[in-house]
Amino acid sequence: MNYRLESDSVGEKQVPIDAYYGVQTLRAYENFNITGYKQPKVLIESLAQIKKACAITNEKAGTIDSNIAHAIVSACDEIIAGKFHDQFITDPIQGGAGTSANMNANEVVANIALEKLGHEKGDYKFCHPNDHVNNAQSTNDVYPTSLKLSIYKTGYVLIAKLDELESALIVKADEFKDVLKIGRTQLMDAVPITLGQEFKAYASAIKRAKRIIKAALEEMKTVNMAATAIGTGINTSEYFFNNIVEELSTVTGIELTQAEDMVDGTQNIDAFSVVSASLKTLAISLSKMCNDIRLMNGGPKAGLAEITIPAKQNGSSIMPGKINPVIPEVVSQCCFAVIGNDMTVAMACEGGQLELNAFEPVVFQRIYESMTMLTNAIDTLINNCIVGIVANEERCHDLLYHSTGFVTALCPVLGYKKSAEIAKDFLKNGTPIVEGALAAGVTQQQLEEMLNPDKLARQFEKK
To answer: What's the alpha-carbon Rg for the chain, to the nearest Å?
Structure first.
């Protein structure tokens, strides 16, 4: 392999001659072999969008030559289009508060620009990673801004999948609207409900989680570009400070706002913890729903068996014919991981000191992982489970009429104590609830009105 010689503050180092990255990227690659993953495409795109906006703004400010600015913009456009992504080789988790990721972008953009200007890669006097591509910038404003852009974009991919899930649940709620069953509290018989009401409640929980996530994502639209090192704007022009966020909004198509307090915007990253917490909230609701589905599907003979979910694969290597609820199981596992990721994000956000949080890389990696897992988990939940759920109406009817679920409706007439006696007699001796109620003085007409399961389940149901 042929090499070119590059140097940085640490010293000289051979870089593969065909590489568009440079010496600082290569050092990071060697230092941070942590996860085995590369930076996600969305982050590479966001970094390129920032570098493009900065080059445009710096050209207008007169701080870099127009030919160099145009070459940088053209290089960024190619990266945004999906080219050169293999040159972004730094590990998502890295020391240095993201400096390696920023310099990876600076070096790749600079070397693509150099070729466009008719020069060899590494001939940085004509387009320098720091002096030109990183002009008026610091990792400390570029990197958190790239993370916010990436989380915002990825978050709305998740939102789109949540829209699908909510719709699928509403379809099932309508399909099951007339399937009466026994409701349960603390896993014990409670009062009548419809299967449709349960699925509508799941849809409502998803709708609420979606609203919370959207609100959290709005925090990602406030960025600290032009803060540079610690929020004081050192080494930026007045024009750049006043115009970079507007230019970046134009490049990204996202309406961004510059942080009101740039020092705060540089040292505090609590907005990321808000996003992570919103994902945890979704994970809690999602896993709870999957728990319910597994319980209602349980059996097929010795469990509740109120619903049947699609059979997707053999459930045992030793028990013939066994089918497990593998889709709800995998979704819950993803939710457990998301909840764990939230703790990592919380500790990393808390762990920053003074003017900068060095732990932004793991914050982004965990949030991005959570969003990706949730999106993929929800996709398989919809297509491999929810749409194929079938209600076992006879089983629901049988469990309902063999429960104490009707006794509660007697309380307004007979009182709690007498109603409890009827329930105990039913459980101990098998005396039908209707018979016990008649013996206690309730009329047949009252019974027909009071023990109508459909009415009990829909007393105040909103249409």
So the answer is: 30
pLDDT the model gives residue 12? 93
Of the residues 249, 276, 316, 317, only one is catalytic, namely 316
278 is catalytic: no
Q: What pLDDT, on a 0 to 100 scale, did the predictor assign at position 459?
A: 65
Measured in residues, the chain has a length of 463
Alpha carbon 154 to its chain centroid, in Å, reads 8
pLDDT in tens, 282-302: 999 999 999 999 999 999 999
Token pair of 391 as six digits = 């209600």
Region 138-145 average pLDDT: 97
- The percentage of the chain sitting over the pLDDT mark of 70, rounded to a whole number, equals 99
Residue 251 CA to residue 259 CA, distance in Å, equals 18
Residue 195 has pLDDT above 70, yes or no: yes
The pLDDT confidence band at residue 453, using thresholds 50, 70 and 90, is confident
Give the mean pLDDT of the chain. Answer: 95
